[in-house]
Amino acid sequence: MMGWARDLAHRVRVDVHAVWLAARDRRTPWYARGWGWLVAAYALSPIDLIPDFVPIIGMVDDVILVPIGVWLFIKMVPEALFAEHRAAAESATHRPISRIGAVLIVAVWLAIAALIALDVYSWRYY
Fold first, then answer.
1. Is the pLDDT of residue 115 over 90?
2. What angle do CA 115, 102, 114 make, to 5 degrees?
3. Which of 81, 97, 89, 66 minimizes the C-alpha distance to 29?
4. Torsions phi, psi of 27, nearest 5?
5. Sign of torsion, CA 93 99 101 105?
6. Contact between 17 and 89 (Cβ < 8 Å)
7. Which candidate, 119, 40, 124, 26, places its Cα nearest to that of 77?
8. Contact 69, 39 (CB under 8 A)
9. What's the confidence (pLDDT) of residue 96?
10. What pLDDT sits at residue 125?
């Protein structure tokens, strides 16, 4: 059972990466590119609709929303184009993980949170 879940998680991770690659490709239709950016941003963002620390329900949004978003994206893109990006994403899983990308995403979210905190602070004391 755990092997099946691990394989499914790997497949979803590869498909999300393929969506990100296809969303950056000019051959992808404009409406699919927009949807792909939304799916990839949601899947790769540390901020979720329901936080992951909430028992059971916190993971449900990732387990349901991300695969549905990927499925819709695949329906919008020509099959050969997505197969090309899926193969590229699969080959990228064998390379080292970029920690710099994760640090940049966290830094952007912290900067946004700091700006919001400063704005809220200014409302209270001015």
1. yes
2. 10
3. 81
4. -75, -15
5. positive
6. yes
7. 26
8. yes
9. 63
10. 64
Asked whether 105 and 44 are in contact (CB, 8 A), the reply is yes
Q: What is the pLDDT of residue 98?
A: 72
Instruction: Report the predicted TM-score, pTM, of the whole model to 2 decimal places.
Output: 0.65
Q: How far apart are alpha carbons 108 and 49 in whole angstroms?
A: 18
Instruction: Specify whether 56 is located in the same domain as 103.
Output: no
Q: Which domain holds residue 91?
A: 2-95
Interval 29-72: pLDDT, tens = 999 999 999 888 888 777 777 776 777 777 777 778 888 999 99
Q: Report helix, strand or coil for 98.
A: coil
Query: Do residue 117 and residue 81 come from a single domain?
Result: no
